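Annual report, structural modelling task.

Input specification for the iron/sulfur cluster complex:
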Amino acid sequence: MTALGWHLSEKEWTEWLRVLLESGIAVIAPVLGTTGTSEFQRVGSAEEAAAPPPSRTAMSPKKFLFPQSEVLFSFDFSGESATLSQPEMERGRQLLVGLRPCDAAGLRRLDEVFLSEPEDPTYSERRQRTVIVSQACTQAGQSCFCTAVGGSPSGREGADLALTKLEGSGDLLLEPVTAGGEELAAPASASWRPITAEDRAQAARQAEAVTSAITREPLPPNAPPILASSFDSPAWAEVADGCIGCGICAYACPSCSCFDITDSGGAACGSRCRSWDSCAFSTFTRHASGHNPRADQPSRYRQRVMHKFSYFPAEHGGEMMCVGCGRCIDLCPAGVDIHHAVLALASGATLRVQARSGVKA
Ligand code: SF4
Ligand code: SF4
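The model returned the following structure:
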């Protein structure tokens, strides 16, 4: 890569998005809905994508790489012949903008799952035609803990282009992270100004301010092995207290990748579908015999925590399968808090876990 980055006015940023839209690229961005929360959706105009809401979306953007439900193929036995057909997929490029650094890092965790040999062909096809622009955070939420799991509010992991909005002027710094990001931006960049040392100093000050606003504690470095030795701890019942197995924690999570395969239709014709699944569901591990090796919610919640903070790191050089976005904390109807759960287990104590609304009795 050659470019070090560009300084754009809001007008130039919006104009670039307009050029990309007009060239046929699908632009996906967080859009504020009528309920006051924002969600990623395909936008029809550059203005919709140009100014993302300051806080992250309720749900992660993973459905644009790993849809909540999709038909893998259909089958048809007509007469003497059998036909297998795959659904029409979009083939054009897609640009994801307005992702927070934790979102982009979460999608990279999905890459590790779906692009490991043997690659998942539908995920790989979507990934290859996707460019990701992550935007540095300008505020920290109460549930954010990216810094506790090796991330940063200005991190670039998983991004092709990194965007920083400068407070005051509202101008933007756009920096290529991968060759794909640079290739997309290069044609428009001739009229953009280069980033100055002063720009970088302001971006660094902003990043430091957001980082220091994150109040949640880092995890102890030996959390994975301590968790691994805590499989039978009574603390699991305590940290999962109140879990109703709704699964929203997995559905909202940018790095949860479990899915189920179902066939619908009849003997003559039908479809095979892949849909998101959750280890919180009572049917997740239930055998055909009716036996369920994870018979209760604490054992299911233990699986969620152990997978993200012990099993995955053990196989991926210590990298957690949680990027600290805090979505599962905000959305859990029972106040279960995964950050507090890991701290409690890693401390080796059966602590009463503080929920966001107070301390559980
Ligand atoms: S969101 Fe909360 S209640 Fe629902 S499955 Fe997850 S931990 Fe359990
Ligand atoms: S486990 Fe919770 S905090 Fe961690 S990445 Fe998933 S949704 Fe975010």
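The chain has two domains: 6-58+85-213, 223-359.
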